[in-house]
Design a protein that fits this description.
- The complex is a heterodimer of chains A (446) and B (245).
- Chain A has helices at residues 2-8, 10-58, 60-74, 138-188, 204-253, 260-290, 302-319, 338-355, 411-422, and strands spanning 78-83, 89-92, 108-111, 117-124, 130-136, 298-301, 323-327, 333-336, 361-368, 373-379, 425-430, 435-440.
- Chain A is built from 9 helices and 12 strands.
- Chain A is of the alpha+beta class and 446 residues long.
- The two termini of chain A are 23 Å apart.
- The radius of gyration of chain A is 48 Å and the shape is rod-shaped.
- Chain A is 56% helix and 15% strand.
- Chain B is of the alpha/beta class and 245 residues long.
- Chain B has helices at 9-15, 31-43, 54-63, 80-89, 105-113, 126-141, 174-185, 193-201, 209-223; strands spanning 23-27, 47-51, 68-72, 96-100, 118-121, 148-151, 154-157, 162-165, 168-170, 190-192, 232-235, 239-242.
- In chain B, a hairpin with a 4-residue loop joins strand 7 and strand 8 (162-165).
- In chain B, helix 2 crosses helix 6 (126-141) and helix 7 (174-185) crosses helix 8.
- The N and C termini of chain B lie close together (10 Å).
- Chains A and B meet through helix 5, helix 6, helix 7 and helix 8 of A and helix 9 of B.
Chain lengths: 446, 245
């Protein structure tokens, strides 16, 4: 999924983090401006209230009423009220009663009616009456609203911008990562010549890809070296060995049949044949592996392949006192190179016949699996120990238990090469007792 | 025991198509390989001419009446495939044994399609090469269309799918009939295990030593009366041969 990958990219996370930090900064800045302004305005209004109260009181009881009306007409924001010591209103229009405020001379927050916030103080005049001075503070509240809406809008815009730029910036690296994934998938599935794409941006992704590519170059070089050493040896030695074999053979033909030296030479010819056979198998596996994905596939009817193999190996099974059984689900068809599949299955049957003691059985069968047809070769032999199952397809691997058996230890490598070439699954399992080999094919559609 | 140095000359001459030694043209640029091929074929009773270059080989093949040609797949001047196809399209039907270092089913198919009659991968056992050339020469001289095959007291009727040894009817499976047909069409010829596997089963991979042997053993048991010498003889280090001593 693109989206789930998007959230995990470092670019997206970084830009989201920066967006969040930026929004926080804006909130702090605006909050600070608001608090400082509000404090300043409140303090100013409190000082005005205090000063007006002082001015009113300075004139004494004789002047206070005229001073109040003067102040009212001078400053539309200030309101006054004067109450007698007994609590009746003497003058002023501020809608506050002495009970509404502590009479301590300190300005505090209050209201001048619904929706009209105000600062106000109440105190006793030196002559015993009660003076209330209030000042409308709607300005401060309006300022608070302005700051708050600025906060909400700018916050929302920053969040959206941050998210959008995060997505925008992440799409490209994400696409590059996808391309790298595709390349590495191809590499793990056997295309060792593929490399991770480099965008040329010289950024950290390119740097990583370059490092990975260098590692792969080295791995490929070592792999080719390891393989070509073996193949080169096999290839180089084939011609001289063939000549050696021909000369030994010619020398043997020149001797009398009952000559001991002739038997010795003939044994040498057999040995040379064995070595040549091994070289041939090795080079054949190498050729299969080098062929890569270019495989001529055609429709192969499994039933007929199984029948042919059973017919081919039946006499060998009979000679070794074994049962060879083939049972195929009718109509199964796979897309494959028929000759290679035949060869691979022949090798599996041959192995089964080789390792199963007389009286046992080798069973060839097909079944319909979830991914496609499954060909199974099962025997009642000693089985392959779990620790050896991964080893058996290695070139020249032979179980220590079968060190005396004939065979060159390349049969299963060839089977593995054929399976790999077709993209078929190959697994070894325990038949308790015996071995089960499963070749999982993809059907014609796959 | 006879050595297999001169095993088939008498058989070839008995067919009576040519009074002289059968002639083989070897087109091969590698001198050592050409020498080995020539020596081995001479030992098997052939007269061998060698051509190191493709042009020369093509000219010789068109002019001289050869019984078989061994043709290297890769030559410095002309490609082996080109030589084979230009010979066939020029009406020269001399059987060709293609010899190639390319061991691949596709290559084999390409070689046979271009006009090769058989295909052998380098390096090869000289006995294998000689056996294949002999079969090619013989096949050309023998009548491939015949459906009633006879050898000694053995008869194979390919229409009735029936085999008989003297008066004894022999029941054979279809693969055994194909196997016996191969021997009876090439009497006195050494057939290698690889040739048998290719021609009877149609596969060209290494079948292992025992596999073909047990099939031959089964066929022998049906053909031969108990205690008598077998008609299908083992040629040590090479293969099998249908021969009545």
């Amino acid at each position: 999924m693109l989206t789930s990958g998007l959230w995990r990219t470092s670019t997206f996370r970084l830009s989201a983090l920066f967006g969040a930090l930026y929004a926080l900064g804006i909130v702090l800045l605006l909050g600070l401006v608001y608090i400082r302004t509000a404090t300043y305005l409140t303090g100013r209004s409190d000082r005005i209230i205090r000063a007006e109260a002082d001015v009113l009181e300075r004139g004494g009881p004789q002047d206070i009423l005229s001073a109040m009306s003067r102040a009212s007409s001078r400053d539309p924001f200030s309101r006054f009220a004067l109450y007698a010591a007994t609590g009746e209103r003497v003058a002023g229009d501020a809608p506050l009663r002495p009970a509404d405020l502590p009479l301590n001379g300190q300005p505090r927050e209050t209201r001048l009616g619904p929706g009209i916030p105000a600062r106000a103080l109440g105190e006793r005049t030196p002559w015993g009456e009660i003076l209330i001075v209030a000042r409308d503070s709607r300005q401060i509240v309006e300022l608070r609203h302005i700051v708050l809406s600025a906060l909400i809008w700018s916050g929302a815009i920053i969040a959206i911008l941050g998210l959008a730029s995060g997505i925008g910036l992440s799409l490209r690296p994400l696409a590059r990562i996808r391309a790298m994934q595709a390349a590495s998938d191809a590499i793990t599935s056997g295309d060792f010549t593929r490399r991770l794409p480099i965008a040329g941006a010289r950024d950290e992704l390119d740097e990583l890809a370059t490092i990975a590519n260098q590692m792969m170059d080295e791995a490929e070089r070592l792999m080719i070296q390891a393989r070509t050493v073996g193949e080169g040896v096999a290839h180089e030695l084939r011609s001289p060995l063939t000549r050696l074999r021909a000369r030994l053979d010619r020398a043997a033909q020149g001797l009398e049949a009952d000559d001991g030296r002739r038997r010795l030479l003939e044994a040498c010819v057999d040995e040379a044949d064995g070595v040549l056979r091994r070289f041939h198998a090795l080079l054949r596996i190498a050729a299969l592996e080098a062929r890569g994905r270019g495989l001529a596939r055609s429709k192969v009817a499994l039933e007929s392949v199984l029948e042919q193999i059973a017919e081919l190996y039946e006499p060998l099974a009979a000679e070794r006192g074994l049962w060879l059984k083939a049972h195929s689900v009718p109509g199964l068809v796979i897309e494959a190179d028929g000759e290679l599949i035949f060869e691979a299955l022949s090798n599996l049957v041959d192995n089964g016949l080789k390792f199963t003691p007389a009286g046992g059985e080798v069973r060839l069968s097909t079944a319909v699996g979830p991914a496609g047809p499954i060909i199974t070769v099962a025997d009642t032999g000693p089985g392959i120990a779990e620790t050896e199952r991964a080893l058996v397809t290695r070139r020249f691997y032979r179980s220590p238990r079968h060190a005396q058996s004939s065979g060159h230890g390349l049969g299963l490598s060839l089977v593995a090469a054929v399976a790999d070439l077709h993209g078929f699954g190959l697994e070894f399992d325990d038949a308790a007792p015996g071995t089960i080999v499963r070749l999982t094919c993809r059907g014609p559609s796959g | 025991m006879r050595s297999n140095d001169w095993p088939d000359l008498a058989g070839l001459l008995a067919v009576g198509a040519a009074p002289s030694l059968p002639r083989v043209l070897t087109i091969e640029d590698d001198e050592a390989t050409a020498g080995e091929i020539a020596r081995e074929l001479t030992a098997h009773g052939f007269t061998v001419d060698c051509a190191a270059r493709g042009e020369e080989g093509l000219r010789l093949a068109k002019d001289g009446a050869y019984d078989a040609i061994t043709l290297d797949r890769m030559l410095p001047d002309l490609d082996g495939l080109t030589i084979a196809s230009s010979l066939k399209s020029g009406g020269v039907d001399t059987p060709i044994l293609m010899i190639s270092a390319l061991d691949d089913v596709d290559e084999r198919v390409r070689g046979l399609r271009a006009g090769g009659d058989d295909y052998l991968t380098k390096p090869f056992a000289l006995a294998e090469m000689a056996a294949r050339v002999e079969v090619l020469v013989r096949r050309r001289r023998a009548d491939a269309e015949r459906l009633l095959l006879k050898y000694a007291d053995l008869e194979l009727d390919l229409v009735q799918h029936a085999a008989r040894r003297g008066t004894r009817e022999i029941r054979l499976f279809p693969k055994e009939i194909k196997l016996l047909e191969l021997f009876m069409r090439n009497p006195g010829q050494t057939l290698t295990r690889a040739m048998i596997f290719e021609r009877v089963w149609g596969y060209s991979f290494d079948p292992g030593t025992n596999l073909i042997d047990v099939h031959i053993k089964g066929l022998r048991q049906k053909l031969d009366a108990p205690g008598s010498a077998s008609l299908i003889q083992t040629v040590r280090g090479a293969g099998y041969c249908l021969r009545a001593d």
